[in-house]
Amino acid sequence: MSMSKSHSQHPWIYRAIFDMGSSILHILRGLGKIYLFASHFFYWVWRPPYRLRLVFEQLFFIGNKSVFIIVLSGAFTGMVMAYQTYFGFKLINVDTLVGPVVAISLAKELAPVLSGLIVAGRAGAAMAAQIGTMKVTEQIDALEVMGINSFQYLAAPRIIAGTLALPMLSIIFLFVGCTGAYIVGTKALLIDEAIFYSKLGEFMYLEDLLQGTIKAFFFGFLISLIGTYFGFEVTEGAEGVGRGTNQAVVWGMICVLVLDYFLTSFLIRIL
Q1: What is the dihedral of CA 66, 143, 159, 165, to 10 degrees?
Q2: Does the N-terminal or the C-terminal CB of the chain have fewer CB atoms within 10 Å?
Q3: Distance between CA 103 and CA 168 in Å, rounded?
Q4: pLDDT digits (tens, 9 = 90+) for 45-59
Q5: Domain that holds residue 94
Q6: How far apart (Å, rounded) are the C-alpha atoms in residues 2 and 35?
Q7: Is residue 248 part of a domain?
Q8: d(Cα 227, Cα 123) in Å, to the nearest integer?
Q9: Which helix (H) or strand (E) element contains residue 81?
């Protein structure tokens, strides 16, 4: 009697617990599927035929067609960072450190993370949409009927290209951002050029560049993996394509930010 009375008095508590448990199980099931999807990649990537033409096509799509937005974002990020850092450091009379602080911030964090977010929003969404459209129009079934493994043909080249393209885009972002910071620092904020260069060489190390490049490598792999995974998971026609594209962007960005924390804590100890 008391148990039924408790249920009737607090039904929202049990409903909330049930919804929370269902959400956790749904996330865990999705993580398991992505893990199996990744294992397929490591199996098929070493097996012939090696579709290098498809890899270069995806490199062009993910890399070359993202250069403009990477350059634009990198330039203004570096300039804004120079302004903000200068006026903060001016209060304690260390404004000559603007160059190395901006460069280290870009190399370790901003260049790989912002490049990853840009690629997730642009290329990750396109991967999910392209593969999802092929699935709902039964083109993937047609590939399988012709004896072509759809995963090796569609997913593997995109994942390889994304893994290789993002480190290069991150380096472009870093170079353009440092150039923007240099222009603002020396021309607008009147920091001496010799001091700017000397401080940059004094505080900037190869390990800083290496840390950002390693991050971009993992981000590229994860974004491409998630984009292709949600493409293969598309169902229910055009509505499913839109939903899969949205999930690829959201989860790609979330995974970049979450993975960034764990990679940072690991790489700082190693490097």
Answers
A1: -30
A2: N
A3: 17
A4: 888 888 899 999 999
A5: 52-270
A6: 45
A7: yes
A8: 8
A9: helix 67-89
